[in-house]
């Protein structure tokens, strides 16, 4: 039971919480610092053995990696949204120019 907790439950919880906190705080280094302080306090509260300290470091690395990957994916989705908005603005501008040219041509035809 302890092996399942150490190798599955705590890493999965660390990944999920790191992703959630990354969307709120938006700094992977702060997320890793918070995780490290929590794991370090827990390790010392449970006895402070070398194994627990090593696990705290490993969980912190997992936390940083998941927060960093989340920030990369968020930045890519933001870039795509910006590109889509820019493309739609350019298309709107072009259509406005074409419409204004058509109305100018109609005005010129009326006066001929």
Layout of SSEs?
Blueprint: H1 2-25, H2 28-45, H3 50-110
Helix pairs in contact: 1-2, 1-3, 2-3
What does this structure look like?
The protein has 112 residues and is mainly α. The chain has helices at 2-25, 28-45, 50-110. The protein is built from three helices and no strands. Helix 2 runs antiparallel to helix 3.
Can you describe this structure in just a few lines?
92% of the residues lie in helices and 0% in strands. It has 3 helices and no strands.
Count of helix runs: 3
Radius of gyration, in angstroms, nearest whole number: 27 Å
Distance, first to last CA:
91 Å
The biggest beta sheet reads: none
Looking at the structure, what is the overall shape? rod-shaped
Task: Supply the key terms.
112 residues, mainly alpha, rod-shaped
